[in-house]
Specification:
Layout (H helix, E strand, L loop, with lengths): L7 H8 L3 H19 L3 H38 L13
């Protein structure tokens, strides 16, 4: 279309789409692209930083979940574990 010299009507016809639908997509795309150009570097990096933070938090959650499950299985076999007092002879 824009880069290849086709009109919107020609491109829509070749793709089997209605021309108005293709115009709407083109308008949406160019608006989003213009908005993206207006973003600061920090705003462009924020989604990647948040994805990395989510990944880290999910790993931490999974580690805790696994540890809790293992502790429960251990307690079923051995019995509940108790915290030792500071005066315990086993310390």
């Amino acid at each position: 279309m824009t880069g290849q010299g086709y009109s919107v009507a020609e491109a829509a016809r070749n793709l089997g789409l209605h021309a108005n639908l293709l115009r709407t997509w083109k308008r949406t795309f160019t608006t989003e692209a213009a908005e993206e150009r207006d973003l600061t570097e920090e705003e462009r990096m924020k989604p990647a930083r948040l994805r990395a933070e989510n990944k880290r938090l999910r790993r931490e959650r999974d580690v805790r979940k696994t540890a809790t499950a293992r502790r429960r299985r251990f307690e079923v076999r051995v019995g509940p574990t108790r915290a030792r007092s500071p005066n315990s002879p086993l310390n």
